[in-house]
Amino acid sequence: MYDRVLITTDGTECSVTAAAHGLALADAFDAEVHVVTVVDVQAAGGVFDAGGLTADFVEALDARAKKQVEAVASNADPATTVHTEILKGTPSNEILRYARENDADLLVLGTHGRSGVRRVITGSVAERVVRLADVPVLTVREREETSLDTTYDRILVATDASEDAEAAVEHALSLAARFDAEVHVLYVVDTSVIRPKLGNLVPETVRSALETVGKEALAAAEARAEDVGVDAVTEMVDGVPSRKILSYADENGADVVVVGTHGRTGVDRLLLGSTTERILRSASTPVLSVRRGDENGDE
């Protein structure tokens, strides 16, 4: 399923942890590894730097970038093919361009998980990559306690019966098969989308319809898990999807969360956010974001 894993690093603790996960996945899938860092000269110098940047300053940036990619590459298995590259420009744009040009089928990067006005104005490199990437993206959020444990024993995948979620289930099962892990499939009965109009009263016909969809999605995932020889646990809960997914992951000791993403952009996303992006900003575990069409490939 993953033949070329693209790992991005900026030398921060969360990117170092993300790189460890990327290398573990490359080992599990016998994949080729590409390690890149992006030197954003304008951002490093400051947008209001009227004096320009000296050659020494740019050279120092390049030297630091070289150390960052070499540090990741040095941790790869000796049998793994590793390519390193230093890119110049806007991080999200360069990462996405490199991924397309080198046919990467998995992107791995750390995220600082910032929130508030600054995130709304400038966005996040990780969130922009997740929204626009044509392939799955594994993100590892910055935390006070960062673990380098890259063992996946329990994999949580959320389903809402959409095509994106079906793709996410396929990736979760592929991971489980490679790591000999147990898969937990969670469906959240999301009545919040209609409650603003109906208050706390949700018609039983609506709830019943949502539960029927959930049961069918869970049954399909369980059958697929049986087909590929993966142990699966299914669960249906009621609530706000992002909150329930995060709490379930913590309570059940999930090592990675797999979610489908619709990759929407524009005003709708800025005003409402998305379940995937809320999870990216708050998850205590790595998050693998998948959109439909990403499930293709050999396992």
TrEMBL record:
Chain ranges passing through the membrane: none
Domain UspA as annotated: residue spans: 1-141, 152-291
SUPFAM superfamilies documented for this protein: Adenine nucleotide alpha hydrolases-like
InterPro entries on file: Rossmann-like_a/b/a_fold, Universal_stress_UspA, UspA
One family name in Pfam for this protein: Usp
Membership in a protein family: Belongs to the universal stress protein A family.
Name of the protein this chain belongs to: Nucleotide-binding universal stress protein, UspA family
